[in-house]
From TrEMBL:
Residues 377-445 are annotated as: Disordered. Keywords: ATP-binding, Helicase, Hydrolase, Nucleotide-binding. Residues 1-28 form the DEAD-box RNA helicase Q domain. Belongs to the DEAD box helicase family. InterPro entries: DEAD/DEAH_box_helicase_dom, DEAD/DEAH_RhlB, DEAD_box_RNA_helicase, Helicase_ATP-bd, Helicase_C-like, RNA-helicase_DEAD-box_CS, RNA_helicase_DEAD_Q_motif. This is DEAD/DEAH box helicase. The keyword Membrane does not apply. Residues 232-382 form the Helicase C-terminal domain. PROSITE patterns: DEAD_ATP_HELICASE, HELICASE_ATP_BIND_1, HELICASE_CTER, Q_MOTIF. One of its GO terms (molecular function) is helicase activity.
Length: 445
């Protein structure tokens, strides 16, 4: 129970009004040490309730002491505008019975309006690294009073090349602060470097491993012959699967736009979300999905992180993601916090090896599914390696090798050896002297 953590009574009142009673696993693990002031490095899967795991201790700390003359007392960094906006809404819900205010600072919004909002001195500043740095450079944001620094989706920020910005912002905060870092994956060398630079003896909480996805999520693959076959399969699935809301992921903006046009022409309530959309268009896409005006969102990976939309129960990978981590982030949209969900990946011949690599990464085998109404000729590789990847034909490999390198010292068929022949004599003008003919033997008399 949340009451067992000793949270401020106004936060407990908000939790009660929101019908929050039992904490999730990540909340139960992270809230107690965060309340003690420990630095935390938390790895937790998407949709596990990790936002509340840092927001509640942060709000509790701010409520314990009032500092009306201080600047921003907490800074929350996130990779995308959508995630920043969702975090702001979560803070507003939990802080509804307090006087704590939060300000949003992201790209794609009016800079002057943000600067004006910062002059009102919000206790919490939420933003994306690039725009936060812009405000520091112009003097509209000062971080000298920050007591708590939060990095949410830290691995994603580093994937986006924001490590230098993150380090600059961290160094602008006081050394004596609490730092809470949350990520969906354990990360690699870059994340470890950031942790060593900005955290002090952090307690590590590993709440999920690669093979520990949402228990209520069913994962399937359907083989397809080509992109047009995939389009027909998507239409069939949307027409026959029972779902409330669906997200379809593609690897390119062009394909997302094309698929959106195809689905709308078939009268599906679909909307496209990708990086070339304006901020207003992106807000509209997310809001229309939330409100139920549309029930299908076609998205690139810009939407794979941070979308916390209740009711998404179907995810379709039109293209396989390029890594196991991205796969986890995509399918994490469905089956969130105990809900049932279905994730379906459409696999052409050029997707198979990538799909197999992701299976090995997750230590899982996806269920094979056949849509009898839309049969295809491709059913997977005829031969498989021990790794599960497609095994190429030995004849094809040999032909490819021979064609690329040729055999050393081999001679074209049908040609006689040049051994014993004298080299042609070059003349001074660049021409070559004609070959001498052998004399015809004289006839015997």
């Amino acid at each position: 129970m949340f009451a067992d953590y000793g949270l401020h009574e106004r936060l407990l009142k908000a939790l009660s009004s929101l019908s929050f009673t039992e904490p999730t696993a990540v909340q139960a693990a992270a809230i107690p040490p965060a309340l003690e002031g420990r630095d935390l490095r938390v790895t937790a899967k998407t949709g596990s309730g990790k936002t509340a795991a840092f927001v509640l201790p942060l709000l509790h700390r701010l409520l314990q002491t009032s500092k009306p003359q201080a600047g921003a007392r907490a800074l929350i960094m996130l990779p995308t505008r959508e995630l920043a906006l969702q975090t702001l809404k979560e803070i507003e819900r939990f802080a509804q019975f307090t006087f704590i205010k939060a300000g949003l600072v992201t790209g794609g919004e009016g800079f002057k309006e943000q600067a004006a909002a910062l002059r009102k001195n919000p206790e919490i500043v939420i933003g994306t690294p690039g725009r936060l740095l812009n405000h520091i450079e112009t003097g509209s944001l000062r971080l000298g009073d920050v007591e708590v620094l939060v990095l949410d989706e830290a691995d994603r920020m580093l994937d986006m090349g924001l490590s230098e910005d993150v380090l600059k912002l961290a160094k602008a905060c006081p050394v004596e602060r609490q730092t809470l870092l949350f990520s969906a994956t354990a990360g690699e060398r870059a994340l470890n470097h950031v942790v060593s630079e900005i955290m002090r003896d952090p307690q590590q909480l590993l709440l999920n491993r690669r093979d520990d996805l949402n228990e209520n999520l069913t994962q399937q693959i359907i083989t397809a012959d080509d992109p047009s076959h995939k389009e027909r399969l998507v239409q069939w699935l949307l027409a026959h699967e029972a779902f409330a809301q669906a997200i379809i992921f593609t690897n390119t903006r062009a394909l997302a736009d094309r698929l959106g046009g195809v689905l709308r022409s078939r009268k599906f309530n679909a909307y496209v979300l990708h990086g070339e959309k304006t901020q207003e268009e992106r807000k509209e896409a997310v809001e229309r999905l939330r409100q139920g005006n549309i029930n299908v969102l076609i998205a690139t990976d810009v939407a794979a992180r941070g979308l916390d939309i209740e009711g998404v129960d179907l995810v379709i990978n039109f293209d396989m993601p390029r890594s196991g981590d991205e796969y986890v982030h995509r399918i994490g949209r469905a089956g969130r916090v105990g809900q049932q969900g279905l994730a379906i990946s459409l696999i052409c011949h050029n997707d198979w090896n990538l799909m197999s690599s992701i299976e090995r990464y997750l230590k899982q085998s996806f269920a094979r599914r056949v849509v009898k109404e839309l049969p295809g000729s491709y059913q997977g590789p005829k031969k498989l390696k021990a790794s599960g990847k497609a095994a190429g034909s030995k004849k094809k490999k040999q032909a490819k090798k021979t064609g690329a390198t040729g055999k050393a010292g081999s001679k074209p068929a049908g040609r006689k050896s040049d051994k014993g022949r004298s080299a042609p004599v070059a003349l001074g003008d660049g021409s070559v002297a004609p070959k001498r003919k052998k004399p015809t033997p004289a006839a015997e008399g």
